[in-house]
Request: fold
Amino acid sequence: MKSRYIISAFALMLSLGSYAQKDQLKALEKAIKNFEPTAVKNALSAAEGVIANATDQEKAQFYFLKGNALLELANKNIQTGNNLKNAAKSYQDLLSTEKKIGKKKYSEQAENSLTEVKNKLINSAIKDSDEKRFKESAEKLYDAYLLNPKDTINLYYAASSAVNGKEFDLAFSYYEKLKALNYSGKGVGYYAKSVINGQEEAFPTKQDRDNSVKLKVHTDPRDESIPSKRGEIFRNYALILVEKGEKEKALQAILEAKKDNPEDTSLALTEANLYLDSKDYTSYKRVIEEVLQKSPNDADLYFNLGVISGTANNPADAEKYYLKAIEINPKYSNAYLNLAIVKLDSDTKLVEEMNGLGNSAKDNKRYEELKRQREKVFSDALPYLEKVVELSPDNLDAKQTLLNVYTSLDMTDKYKALKATMN
Reply:
């Protein structure tokens, strides 16, 4: 008799536990429906307290509700990053649980929610980046990558955000993953204009874009070649190693990358830059000559050589390379802009010397001489700036610089005409 009593009590205890779990799940479901942050958090906490001994079906329901609750909290801008990350984990736990029991009551909804979470992580990361919260942006992009490891572009952007935020250890770990994946990012972008708003939009595949054009939802389809990002990845990876004082390791990383990608000129340029930083000019020239032999008509290559030369305080070589880039591609807007910058760089020293002069006859004579030199600087930069504005009329920085040049050269009519376009 006594043993039967114990068994009955145990059965009653199990039954009460099951009722408690169901009650908490109902309470959580109701709290989500009548959303109020504190009530949702309390209901979620209460459900978590009893779910450990629940059946797999009840656990699946809990994970689904938990994911929904956290996603809704994120939608209300409450700890957005953490709640999106934890919502994703909960949905993944749900998918794993339902796969285990062979029933898919919530799986389809969870997969749709995971796509929503990924998109929200990316959008939130973009906002963080715009507001200079680069570490938060990097972490959200990395979480988005983990939700779909095939979409490696998010890992690349995570590394870039970490670099922008000077979170070099974080960036280094992401770049190591990109290296291990042999990620390049090279491909083709597919674009078309929306009929609704006239804005150009990107498509994940050519088929998606072409189907939308056939349906007359988009017009003006175009393809755009996306260059390899491998050079940038190894360059930043190497620069972080240099920052850590490991220059030899940085150079070795570039040389190893070149073995697998001998035609990637960006890797060679990174190698040349490392030689330049260490003042190994012989190796620098050797690499540059090798690159030029492989790509004698590559305007981008000459442009990058101009940038490297400018960084090395060698304006003569920088000018030579920018002019070569323009010779190959007469519409190379950035080459014209950088040429103007090369010309204008000397203005700072001229102004400093002018400001340091006194009022003696000798100083006044020197002042007039420097004034003529400044006018020559502005006159030399003028045609390049005008070409930039012609090729890139939306470049407000170039327009503002050109306005300053017009002012310095007393070109009032041109100043007024350009200013009118900005107003």
Residues 2-33 form the longest helix (32 residues).
